[in-house]
Amino acid sequence: MVAVVFWVLVGLATVTSFATAWALGANSNSPPFAPAIGANAISTMRAAFLIGILAALGALTQGGSISETVGSGLIDGVAFTSLAATTGLLTATAFMAFGVYTGYPVPAAFATTGAMVGVGLSLGGDPAFETYRRIATFWALVPPVSGGLAYLTAKLLRRDDIPETVAIPLLASIVGGIVANIELSIVPSPTGAAQESVAGFVSGTLPFLTVAGVDIATVAVTLLFAIVSFQLIRRRTQVSVDKGIKTFLIVLGSVVAFSSGGSQVGLATGPLENLYRAELGLPAIVLLALGATGILSGAWMGAPRLLQATSREYAQLGIRRSIAALVPGFIIAQLAIALGIPISFNNIIISGVIGGGLAGGSSSISRRKIGFTLGFWVLTLGMSIVVGFGLYRLFATVLGA
Amino acid sequence: MHNPRSDKPVLVGVESLDNVQQLVRTAGDLADLGAGTVRVVTVAVKRSDSPFRVFSDETIVREFADSSHELLDRATTPEGVTIERDVLVARSAARGLLAAVEETDPAALVVGWRPQEQRTDAVFGTTVDALVERAPCDLYVERVGHEANGVDSILLPVAGGPHVETAARAAIAIAARNDARVLVFSVETSGDAAALAAEGREALAGVDGPEVPVETTVRESDDVTGAIVDEAAAHDVVVMGATRKGSLRRKLVGSVPRRVVDQTDRTVILARSGDVVGGPLHELGRLLRRW
What we know:
The complex is a heterodimer of chains A (401) and B (291).
Chain A: H1 2-27, H2 34-38, H3 44-62, H4 64-73, E1 75-76, H5 82-102, H6 108-122, E2 126-127, H7 129-158, H8 164-179, H9 198-205, E3 210-211, E4 214-215, H10 216-239, H11 241-269, H12 273-279, H13 284-317, H14 319-339, H15 345-358, H16 367-399
Antiparallel strand pairs in A: 1-2, 3-4
Helix pairs in contact in A: 1-5, 1-11, 1-13, 3-11, 3-13, 4-11, 5-6, 5-16, 6-16, 7-14, 7-15, 8-10, 8-11, 9-10, 10-11, 11-13, 11-14, 14-15
Chain B: E1 10-13, H1 20-33, E2 37-45, H2 57-63, H3 66-74, E3 82-90, H4 93-104, E4 108-113, H5 126-134, E5 138-143, E6 153-157, H6 164-178, E7 181-188, H7 193-206, E8 214-220, H8 224-232, E9 237-241, H9 255-263, E10 267-272, H10 279-288
Parallel strand pairs in B: 1-2, 1-4, 2-3, 4-5, 6-7, 6-9, 7-8, 9-10
Antiparallel strand pairs in B: 5-10
Helix pairs in contact in B: 1-6, 4-5, 6-7, 8-9
Membrane topology (chain A): Multi-pass membrane protein
Family (chain A): Belongs to the inorganic phosphate transporter (PiT) (TC 2.A.20) family.
Pfam families (chain A): PHO4
C-alpha cells in the first residue's frame, strides 16, 4: 500500500513537473526573439523553433543551480518527501494556472518559492533565513538594476555622437565576455565542480597563471571572447548597420532564450530534486531532461502565437530600446543562475522594457499598474506559503503520513 | 432598455481588419434609428505577462497600439451618421468592451464573431460569450465574413422570448436604410405559431422608426432549424433572438439559433436584450471583476 502511494505520487509529481515546464516554455519564452521578429530579422516559426531548442539546451546545461536551491536550499533540516514535493508543485502550478486563467500577474518564481517554503515548514523544517535574505535582496535589486541598465543602454544607443558601428559591437563585446563566464554542466571542470565556464576551464587547467590574486587566464579568456564578439559584429555593422543590428538581435535573442531556459527550468524541477536524486537515485541530468523536454514542447506549441502578438509591441518599441531591454535581461538571468536564485524571467524583462521605454522621453508608466503588479507579486509569495503549508498538513492528515 | 429615439450612441467593438466595415455598417443602421452616433472601439490587449502593460494607458495608446489604430482607420463613416473612434487598454478584449459599455452607456453594442474558433467549449469564443453574459445593454452578435451584398429582404424568425424586441429593432434599422422588407417567420410546432408571429409584428410596429414593409409567414414543420435555414436562402440577412427563454445564465444562446448560424451562409445577426442582464447577482459579479 505504502509502495503504491509512493509510486502514484512519483507519477503525479512527474506529470505536474512536466506540465509546469510546458507552461513555462509556452508562456515566458517569447521576449528573447520578439524584437528580432519585429525587426524582420527572422520569421516567427523559425524563431519559435530556435527558442524551443535553445531554452531546452539552457535548461539542460544551466538549470541545475536554481533547481537545487528550490529543492533543498529553502528549508533546513528536512528533505522533501514524495508527498511534500507533489504538494509543493501542485500549489505552485495552481497559482500559475490562476494567473494564466484570470490574467493577474502571478510570477512562477514567487509561486514556486513560496509553495516550497510553505510545504517545507509544514514538514517541520527550519526556515533558511540566510537564503531568504539573499533571494529577497536579489529580487529587490532586479527592477532598479535591470531598469537602470536598460535605460543607460538605450541612452547610449540613442546618442548621435556614438556611431552604431561602435555602440552595437560594444554591447556585443559585453555579451561575449559574459558568455565566456557562464557556467555550463557540459564544460568539464578541472577543479571538480558540477558546472564550469569556458573561462573557468582554462583557468583551472592553467592554475599557475594567477598573479597577485588576479586570475590571468580568466581575464584573458573573457577579453578574448569580448574582442572576438566586438570584431564580428563590428564587421557586420560596417558592411551595413541594418544587417549588423539584425545579426546582433538574433545572437542576443539566442543567448537570452538560452538563459531563460536555464533560469526557468528549476521552478518546475526543483521540487522533485530530493525525490529523484536521493530517493530514486537518479542523476541530476534526468530531472533536468524532463524539464527541458517540457520547455521544448511548450515553446514549440505555445510560442508562435505569443510571438506574433508580442513582436508587434517590440517593433513599436524600436530596435534600440528592444536591445536595451534584452541586454540587462541576459546579464541578470545569468547572475541569477550563477547565484542559484529562482527568478521569473518575465519580471526581469518588465523592468528592462520600462527602462528602455523611459529612455525615449515621451513614455510614462502608470503608478497604479506598477503598484498593483508589485502588490500581486507580494500577495503571490505570501499566499503560496500559506496554501503550501495548509495543503501539506491536509494531505499528510488524510493519507496518514 | 431601448428608449425610442435614444440619444445614446451605438457602440461597435472591432478586432479584425477584415470585418471592421461590415460591423460599422450594421452599427450605422442602428444608429440611424437613434442618436445617429457610432462609437467604434477596439481594445489594445495587454495581458498580465506583457512587459508593456505597466505603461500608462496614454503611452500604450500612443506608442504601443499601432494595430489598433490601423483597425480604426479602416472604419469609414456610414452615410448620415457621425463616427467616433477610440482605443481602450485592457487585459482582455471582453474586459475592455465591458468597460466601454459602462463608460458609454450605449443604445446597443455590436460585435462580430467568426465561426472557426472551435478550440474551446465556449459557444462563440470567450470574448463574445462574456459579452452575451455580462454586457448590460442590447447586444448584437454578427457572424462576420458573410456580408450581404445589397439587402432586399430580412428574415426575422420569431419564437417568443425576451429578445424579440431587440431583434425587431435591428430588422427595422437594416430594412429602413436599404429599402428592404422584413418577413416575420414562425414555425408551427405546438399550435402557438400564429400568436408568436403576431408578437413579432407587434415588436416591429413598436420600433420608433420609418415605415417598413412587413410580411408574415407561418410554416408547419417538425424541424424548426431546417425550416428557418430553408427560408433564409430567400433572404439576405437573418436577425434572431439569442434564446427563446429568459436569462438562464448557463444557456447563452439557444440551440436553434446556434444551428441556424452553422447551416446558412446568409448574414446572421443574433440579438440579445439588455434587460436580461442585471439584478443583484450581476452587480456583485461586476464589483468583483472591477480589477
